[in-house]
Amino acid sequence: MRLFTALRIPGEPLISILREIEQIPGIKPVDKESLHVTLLFLGEVPESVVPLLKEGLSSMKFKSVEVELKGLGVFPSPFSARVVWVGLAGNLDPVRELRLKQEGLLRELRVHYDKKEFSPHVTLGRVKSRPPKELIELIDIYGSTSFGKVKLESFHLMRSILTPKGPIYDSLIEVRGA
C-alpha cells in the first residue's frame, strides 16, 4: 500500500491560480479536491503495518494552526521545473513538530520513509516537458503573492493509488488537532 501523511488544504483560496495554471500547455494541474501538504512520504508499506500506523498516528497530539498560502514557485528550478507549488508562511512550528513526532513513530515501527528535507508546500501542478515561458511569467507575477490564510486543523494518513489519469488519494484516518 502506497502511503503518506498529509495536511489537507481547502481549494477555495487557490482556485484563481489553479485556473491560470490550467491554461498553460504542458502542465497537468492538481484537482482542487486533492490539494495537500505532504508531511512524510512512506512509499509502499506492508498491509500488516497499517493498523500499527493508524494506532500510533491516532494518539498523536497536534496543535491546529493558521498559515498563509504564499508565493508561487517550482521545483527544482525555473528552467528545469517539474513541480509547480504554493508555499506556506507564518508559524510553521506546529507543522514541523508534528512531522518530527511522525518520524519518531516510523523509526519505532521500522517503517521506511523519505528523509528529504521538509519544505512545506502545496503542489498545484506537474510540468510534463520543458517548462513553458508562460510558467516563468506566472512565477514572476505571483512569486510573493499571498493567496490567503487557511487553518490546518487535522492531518491524514493517505493512501495513493496511481492511475493513468493521475493519483487517487484516499484518507485512511483523520486526526483532529487541538
Write the layout of secondary structure elements.
Blueprint: E1 2-8, H1 15-22, E2 27-29, E3 36-44, H2 50-58, E4 65-75, E5 83-89, H3 93-108, E6 121-127, H4 133-142, E7 146-152, E8 154-161, E9 168-176
Number of helices, counting only DSSP H or I runs of 4 residues or more: 4
Strand content: 35-45%
- Give the helix level as a range of percent: 10-25%
Q: How large, in whole angstroms, is the Cα Rg?
A: 16 Å
Spatial strand order of the main sheet: 2-6-5-4-7
Mean pLDDT, to the nearest integer, reads 95
What is the succession of H and E elements?
EHEEHEEHEHEEE
Measured between the Cα atoms of the first and last residue, the distance is: 29 Å
**What is the global morphology?**
globular
CATH hierarchy: architecture: Alpha-Beta Complex
Q: Which superfamily, in CATH terms, is the homologous superfamily?
A: Cyclic phosphodiesterase
Mind describing the biggest β-sheet? 5 strands, antiparallel
The poorly predicted ranges are none
In the CATH scheme, the class would be Alpha Beta
The CATH topology is: Cyclic Phosphodiesterase, Chain: A
How many domain units? 1
Work out the number of β strands. Answer: 9
The secondary structure category is alpha+beta
Pfam family, one: LigT_PEase
Domain Phosphoesterase HXTX: 12-85, 105-169
GO molecular function: 2',3'-cyclic-nucleotide 3'-phosphodiesterase activity; ligase activity; RNA 2',3'-cyclic 3'-phosphodiesterase activity
Motif (HXTX 1): 36-39
